[in-house]
């Protein structure tokens, strides 16, 4: 008898179930392979239909902001066959990459590296599975995870241990969330496919478009450059007086070192808060020096020769936005002067950041209003109780420091979780 959509079907039982299969749980799958426990069953559930790493953000020519040595394995195991260097060898580009004399690969290449590594674990991953809930189970399996596949059928997989790594989800301002017609208002995570749609809709394609980019960080600057290259008229609006430069100094970059997690965890709350504030410009709401100069040069060049296709709105906030047949009518307010203006844009791109997915929405384990933290052991702490067997990756910036949501520590963290699970499952 075939299952009807919405029916709850037994999805089986495993020892370890990973929720999400992005870089964090991919690194964990590699670590499991290196410290295999005889008879251990492992499965991962991934929402996407196939492995992909932020495909809508892979703008041509954009580079990683971390060194290639901070790949899935190297900081933990320098002999792993899943290193970025091994990938280059497999692709026949090792010498060519060395000749570039840079530590930071382009994002498209790093995305290909991740997909190359993921291809070795297709047998462990169920793609196209949207996890809808996670709850503790009383039948000895510890956890029950509900998930829905492309067929609409709800399945429940039971697991002794669960590792949640749902990555980052886009944050949209309230004025953007309030719009019912959002075809012309988008987050930069969806940029490339949505730009293709917009180019087809406009009679003159992107060169006929005027697009507002909202945000003052690296992504906003990259989006503005990409749209300007495509021939669009670009308005860039941000809260600061200028685009803040990213702090890339080597001493400050030590804040992303794996060992700093212990130091951060031991620090008083007020110290951690101050460190996050003081060093936020290592990654958040800051732009690489070369990119700020490139934007300024373009803006200045157009002031000399015209026509003006790049407009910069500093100390500016969006007061209102309304979608209509002509596009998006946006009211901008200059907070330093109080001046307001209303302009119709063909599209609005919100480069307004991300927040960790964590356990949000999984009400069976973390009801609305519950206090959710992540212990130094990477176990979930819900309302003050550390939950045995439940691990969370990349979701505790206040507790684990600035590297938590980034790729910097995925290799080391995966090794720590793998070892912890080994200890839990030991006879």
Describe this structure in words.
This protein has 427 residues and is an alpha/beta fold. The chain has helices spanning 23-34, 84-91, 94-100, 107-118, 174-177, 191-201, 218-229, 250-253, 260-266, 269-278, 289-305, 397-400, 410-425, and strands spanning 8-19, 42-46, 125-127, 130-136, 143-148, 154-164, 168-170, 185-187, 210-214, 233-237, 310-313, 316-324, 327-334, 340-345, 347-350, 354-356, 372-374, 379-382, 385-392. The strands form 4 sheets. Strands 1, 2, 3, 4, 5, 6, 17, 18 and 19 form a 9-stranded mixed beta sheet that branches. The protein has a 5-stranded parallel beta sheet with strand order 8-15-9-10-11. A hairpin with a 6-residue loop joins strand 4 and strand 5 (143-148). Helix 1 (23-34) packs across helix 13. The chain is globular and about 70 Å long.
Structural class: alpha/beta
Report the average pLDDT across residues.
Answer: 92
Bin the helical content.
Answer: 25-40%
SS field, number of helical segments: 13
How big a fraction of the residues is strand? Answer: 25-35%
Q: What is the global morphology?
A: globular
Largest sheet: 9 strands, mixed
Give me the Rg, rounded. Answer: 23 Å
Q: Using DSSP, what is the number of strands?
A: 19
Poorly predicted spans: 1-6
* End-to-end separation: 40 Å
Question: Strands, helices and their partners?
Answer:
Layout lengths: L7 E12 L3 H12 L7 E5 L37 H8 L2 H7 L6 H12 L6 E3 L2 E7 L6 E6 L5 E11 L3 E3 L3 H4 L7 E3 L3 H11 L8 E5 L3 H12 L3 E5 L12 H4 L6 H7 L2 H10 L10 H17 L4 E4 L2 E9 L2 E8 L5 E6 L1 E4 L3 E3 L15 E3 L4 E4 L2 E8 L4 H4 L9 H16 L2
Parallel strand pairs: 1-2, 1-6, 2-3, 6-19, 8-15, 9-10, 9-15, 10-11
Antiparallel strand pairs: 4-5, 5-6, 7-16, 12-13, 13-14, 17-18, 18-19
């Amino acid at each position: 008898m075939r299952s009807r959509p919405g029916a709850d079907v037994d999805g089986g039982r495993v020892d370890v179930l990973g929720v999400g299969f992005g870089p964090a749980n991919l690194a964990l799958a590699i670590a499991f392979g290196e410290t295999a426990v005889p008879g251990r069953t492992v499965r991962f559930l991934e929402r996407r239909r196939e492995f992909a790493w932020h495909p809508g953000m892979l703008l041509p020519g954009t580079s990683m902001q971390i060194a290639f040595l901070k790949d899935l394995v190297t900081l933990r195991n320098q002999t792993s066959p899943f290193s970025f260097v091994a990938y280059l060898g497999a692709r026949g580009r090792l010498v060519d990459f060395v000749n570039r004399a840079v530590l930071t690969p382009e994002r498209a290449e790093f995305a290909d590296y991740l997909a190359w590594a993921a291809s070795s674990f297709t047998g462990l991953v169920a793609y196209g599975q949207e996890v809808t809930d996670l709850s503790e189970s009383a039948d000895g399996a510890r956890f029950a995870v509900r998930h829905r596949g492309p067929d609409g059928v709800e399945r429940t997989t039971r697991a002794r241990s669960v590792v949640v790594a749902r990555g980052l989800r886009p944050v949209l301002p309230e004025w953007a969330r309030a719009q019912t017609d959002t075809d012309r208002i988008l987050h930069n995570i969806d940029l490339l496919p949505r730009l293709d749609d917009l180019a087809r809709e406009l009679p003159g394609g992107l060169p006929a478009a005027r697009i507002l980019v909202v945000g003052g960080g690296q992504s906003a600057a990259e989006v503005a450059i990409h749209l300007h290259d495509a021939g669009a008229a670009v308005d860039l609006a941000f809260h600061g007086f200028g685009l803040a430069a990213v702090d890339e100094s080597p001493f400050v970059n030590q804040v992303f070192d794996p060992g700093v997690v212990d130091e951060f965890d031991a620090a008083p709350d007020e110290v951690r808060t101050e460190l996050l504030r003081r060093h936020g410009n290592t990654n958040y709401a800051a732009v690489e020096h070369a990119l700020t100069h490139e934007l300024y040069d373009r803006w200045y060049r157009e002031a000399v020769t015209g026509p003006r296709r790049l407009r910069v709105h500093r100390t500016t906030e969006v007061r209102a936005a309304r979608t209509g047949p002509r596009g998006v009518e946006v009211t901008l307010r200059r907070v330093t002067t109080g001046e307001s203006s209303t302009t119709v844009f063909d599209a609005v791109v919100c480069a307004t950041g991300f927040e960790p997915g964590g356990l949000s929405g999984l009400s069976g384990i973390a009801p609305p209003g519950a206090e959710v933290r992540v212990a130094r052991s990477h176990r979930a702490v819900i309302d003050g109780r550390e939950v045995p067997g439940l691990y969370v990756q990349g979701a505790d910036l206040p507790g684990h420091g600035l590297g938590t949501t980034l790729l910097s520590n995925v290799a080391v963290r995966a090794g720590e979780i793998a070892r912890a699970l080994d200890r839990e499952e030991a006879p």
